[in-house]
Design brief:
alpha+beta, Bifunctional nuclease domain, 7-stranded mixed sheet, 7 strands
Length: 161
Amino acid sequence: MEVEMKIRGLMMDPVTNMPIVILKDVQGSMVLPIWVGVYEANAIALEIEKVSTPRPMTHDLIKSLLLGLNTGLRKVVVSELKDDTFYAVIWLDRDGDLISVDSRPSDALALALRLDCPIYVEESVLKSSKLASSVSDKASNDELRRMLEGLNDEDFGRYKM
């Protein structure tokens, strides 16, 4: 089963100093942090902040290609968590035909923002993520999870790299 999520914001992991995309379910009870690369976080941040660039970025180019080919973005799904790596699927709609495309979650999320489509996470991924955090470094993961769950709007100012 898929759970609809929204991008709540971006933050830096205080331990690894890596960017984290924070997904929160639409009911507001579950939080899923996904660690991403610096460039991927920047692509997401540019769209969150509605910053225009002088030339199209990669995700803007993909958006233009999809629109030019009359292909819609139906949804993106964070579909799997395997060996601490998240996987995603982009679901395209072309003339009523659904096409699935394997993707990194960061790219799928950047496209979802640009094309205003829903973001989902498989329930099994949410469960695996909770299980993984209880198995590995419990103290720091519990601390991070408490911090993520307690975030409010003031905690997310403008994202800076």
